[in-house]
Request: fold
Amino acid sequence: MVERPESLEGRWDILYRDYPEVYEEWGKIPMLPDFLDVMLKRFSLEGKTVLDVAAGTGVSTFGLAAHADLVIGVEPQDAMMELAIAKGRQQGVTNVRFEIGVAEDLPLSSDSVDAAIAFTAGGDVAKTAQEMVRVVRPGGFVLRADVAPGWYGGDVNRAVAGDPSEIPREGSRDYILAGLGYDFFDVPMVQDYDSVEQAVRTYGFIHGKKHIDYIRANNVTMIRWKARARFKMVP
Reply:
C-alpha cells in the first residue's frame, strides 16, 4: 500500500484518480450560502432534464436531482464515477444516471437536455462551452460555476500566496466566455469546517503543506471564497 502523502500540493489530477473519498468529504463541507439555492432563485429546474458536467462523486448531481426531473452526470474519472454510482444506489435515487465522458466531447446528442451545468469543470474552456450549448435545447440555459478570479484557494491561499490580480486577461476563462456572450454574477461564500483537523485533511491535503501550517497556526475552521457563475441562454 502506498503511504498517503501529507498533501497533494495542488495536484487535482491525483486527487480525482486516487483519493475520491477526500474529494467527497471536501465537497460536502457546508458552503454558506448554498450555491444551488442561489442558482435556483434565477433558474428553475422543475420538470427539466439537466446535464451535470464533470460530476465528480455526484455531490452536485444529487443536489440538482432534488429539483429536476432527470440529471445526467458526465465524469471522466472511473474512481469518481464508481463512488457516485454507489452513493446513488445506497440512497435509492432513481432520477440520476452517470456516463463516462469529457467536457470537451460530451456523450449526448444535440438538443437533448434543458440545461447544462458545470461546477468547477476543467478542460478547454471554449470547447466545453461549445459542447454545453450544443446539447441544450433552444430556450434552455448553460451555466458554469467556478472560483471567481483571484479567489482560488479562498482567503487561506491569499494569506499564504498573496493577493493575485483579478483583471481578466486574454485567454482567461472570463475573457473567453465574455467573448461567447456569457453574463455572470458573483456569490461571496464561507466554507464551514467542523474542526481544524477536518480543514487540514481535506483543504490542506489538497492545497499544500504551507496551507496546512497556516490552518493549524491560526485555528482556521472557516474559509472565505467567492464563486462566479457564468451563464448563457440558448436561443
Summary: The chain has a mean pLDDT of 94. The chain has ten helices and eight strands. The beta strands are 31-32, 49-53, 70-75, 96-100, 113-119, 136-147, 183-192, 222-233. The chain has one domain: 12-153+166-188+227-233.
